[in-house]
Amino acid sequence: MSANSVVADNRLLAVDQVSSGYVKGVRTINRCSLTVDEGEIVGVLGANNAGKTTLIRTITGSLPVWEGTVELGGTDVSGETAERITRRGVGVALEGRRIFGSLTVEENLLLPAPSKGHRSKRGGSRKTDRERRRQLLADIYEVMPDLWRHRTSSGQALSGGQQQMLAIGRALMVEPKLLILDEPSLGLSPRFTEHVVDLLRSINDRYQMAILMAEQLVWIASEVSSKVYVMDGGRLGDARPRGTWNEQDLSNAYLGERGDDREVGE
Amino acid sequence: MTEAIQVVVGGVALGAVYFLLGAGVSLVFGQSRIVNFAHGQFLVIAGFTAWAVARSGVPLLVSLLVGVVVVGILAYILERFLLRRVINNPFTAFLISLGIFLILEQAVVSIWGPAPEQLSSPVSGSWSIGDVTIPKTTPVLIGAAAIIGVVLAVIIRRSRMGRMIRASAEDAYASQYSGINVSLVRSVAFVGGSAVAGLAGVLLALEYPINPSAGETYLITGFVVALMGGLGSLGGAAVGGLVLALAETVGQAYGAGQWVSGIGVALLVLVLIVRPEGLFTKFTGAITEAQTVLVGASGRLGSGRVRQVGVVGTIAVVLFILPLLGLGASTLNVLEVALIFGIVAYSIALLYRLTGLLSFGSGAFMGVGAFSCAIFAGSWHWDFWLSLVVTLALCGVLGAVLGVVLSRTRGLYFLIITFALADGVALIEQNISITGGASGLTMTTNFGSIFGITFGSGESIYYLSAVVLGLVTLAIFVISRSKFGQRAQTIRENERLGASLGVGPVGYIVAAFAISSVIAGLGGVLYLYQDLAVTPGLFTALATVSLPLMVILGGVLSPSGPLVGAFIIMLVPYLLNFNADAETYVYGVIIIVVMLGAQSGVVPYVDNLSARLVGLLKGGHQPMGTRRPAGALAGPPGLEMGDSLSPDSRLNGRAASPALEKK
Hints:
The complex is a heterodimer.
Chain A: E1 11-20, E2 29-37, E3 41-45, H1 52-59, E4 67-72, E5 75-76, H2 82-87, E6 90-93, H3 105-110, H4 116-122, H5 126-143, H6 145-149, H7 160-172, E7 178-182, H8 190-207, E8 210-215, H9 218-224, E9 227-232, E10 235-236, E11 240-241, H10 247-255
Parallel strand pairs in A: 3-8, 3-9, 6-7, 7-8
Antiparallel strand pairs in A: 1-2, 1-4, 4-5, 9-10, 9-11
Chain B: H1 2-32, H2 39-55, H3 60-81, H4 90-112, E1 126-129, E2 132-135, H5 137-158, H6 160-170, H7 172-176, H8 182-207, H9 215-229, H10 234-253, H11 260-274, H12 284-292, H13 305-321, H14 329-355, H15 362-379, H16 384-406, H17 411-431, E3 441-442, E4 447-450, E5 453-455, H18 458-481, H19 483-493, H20 495-500, H21 505-531, E6 533-534, H22 540-554, H23 561-575, H24 580-597, H25 602-618, H26 637-645, H27 647-651
Antiparallel strand pairs in B: 1-2, 3-6, 4-5
Helix pairs in contact in B: 1-5, 1-8, 1-9, 1-10, 2-3, 2-4, 2-8, 2-9, 3-8, 4-24, 5-6, 5-8, 6-8, 9-10, 9-11, 10-11, 11-17, 14-18, 14-21, 14-22, 14-23, 15-16, 15-17, 15-21, 15-22, 16-21, 17-22, 18-19, 18-21, 19-21, 22-23
């Protein structure tokens, strides 16, 4: 299959036949291809050990791309560091949230530098840069009032749900064109998970921001995604556009039969 | 009363310098994760550079600046070209910095001579208030330290760079995803912290003479201050610096002068017992990191055992034949000493294998062993065998006590305390009468006889040492393979897992310490009978650096590693017939080269190389995953960063290069 045979004008991320892993010679993810268009929400569904986190690490540059290519806005970024890819406008909310406990909530949010893409596009001076960031911070506080309330307390003091908010907020401060979330529902109560889903939808609406989300929970992905990939044993299935599945199909796809030759990573 | 005020004023001035030392350590270690052994030497270099520049007629302020800038540049070069390459493995970084320290210390002496020097300050003279005289430099010192402290606090607490430094220190992996260039930020923290040490140096030189070989003392002072106050806390460093300086000046003034150098470590041990995370630590994450960061290797004695047995056998044959070759007395003497140090090196390797802790304190137990035996058998004329048994028992008990205290510590604390241990024991040896004071003790009796053989001459002690070495190696093998050893190694590899299996660490650590101390003490006894004399501090300088070096160099987990390391360290400088200066440089270069090239030691490296060679000759492909690809360091940055900063490798420094541990 070739996901890139027809390249859309508004293609943001194109992952083509990418393999990677942790131990030399053992492909934890194997020839994975996916695409994300501008403004689109894409879900990657898979159980534990399916390779979701490895896929995200590879796309975002903290694992080497062994083969295949990762293109961001038409530029090949395979081999770039996570820091540079982040600066190209990819905000990542990591698995397990990884809040900086020694920094306050606001310091966590102010940590990221504005991404390069935004700077050059608007050609703004430092002052408008600062202005824009202040606006962004205000926006984030507006969408996540909890963070405003706790802005001076240590990141450690937040509850799990608040930490997830902060992780998403921190990723947004990169001014991303693409927001990547690794299991945003992990460790959250069902009610709070719904809250996160609403939040993602409103971010997507508000900024026309593309979102790539790895999840175990079928309903989250199925509710917001315009297309879904099912991941299993380090392999990514074909894209399934909205309307071609229902929740039951998806559940079967990765909870049902499995290949026996799974290579387990993570 | 006036005397007391005088003492306090002196203490506060010294405290200002100590604060800067501690703040620098806090910044370098707390933020860049590098335990830089040369940190104290940076202080010395800054002081001496400023002194030399000022002497050539340059205005004082400019000279001070030059001193600090020189240290900054030096720190940048070291970080950029040496330490950054091994950032994944803090332990290797530490050893490389040890090599750097040896070279820098020797360089200062070579360039400027061994005498202490002091800057001639323009604000010379002093004020007299009643009977109290205050040097005019004192307010300068205190004011400068206060200003520097405030500037540092503002940078760390309020600036963007400060945020980035704190974030990178806490979670380098997550920091990348905020677009932070982690290695750049670490460089900044390292160079900044080193420059603070430079500032401390030039300020210190204004009021006190700086000793060119005091870098190690300043390093320990800096660590004591930083750890006492709590890593990462500037306020803590200020209080810690003040407390330590006052304790030292008060001790000096009121008749405990000879004990002053031990005060710092005594205070540290006290803090450790009362409040292990430091007096002022807010964020506990930093200290867990501080405690685990130096706990190194994984991997056990595994495959390749047959080859290893072959190596050990070959060594045994060579050892047996060597004296028969008609070597000169001095060569035989060097071989003897190498064997004895080899025995002690095995005690370090055993402790490491069982607990994952690398002790710098074996010299202390060599000293205890040698002196106890000299007192019992020499001064008190006990029977030799009784003396030997009591001596070894004493070492075992002291080792166990030390184990109890140190079982609470990991990483940095452990390092500093064991490092200071040999100094502490030497301090006691010098200052109590029973050990013969500064001149030490000489022996008139010989080692006891076994099967009618008396061990007096050089050759017989040589063979005795070789046999003891063999027995110790065997004992270590048996202990490692025993149930006790297996459980201890489980703890070493994963303390939490061990605890969940009902294997608590304390008992094992204490036992491992006791065994290791007995072996080190035995080495001390052999040394005593080899030389028939023992002087205080004999083992201090030699043992604290050379012994761990032998172990690391040879390969700490390799059965023949410590012995091979001992022979390299003892024989290479002797055979090349260097003078003492050149020897130090050679040591330094050897450490750096080996640590860059073969992190797990020479023996595993050669072993690995030969295995690959054999593989190539057979036409098969190389064993997988035994080495990182040659270009790994210079490879695409994505690969390097990914390797180094993945969460898995953060948990265990070595995980980033699994290759080097497994064979």
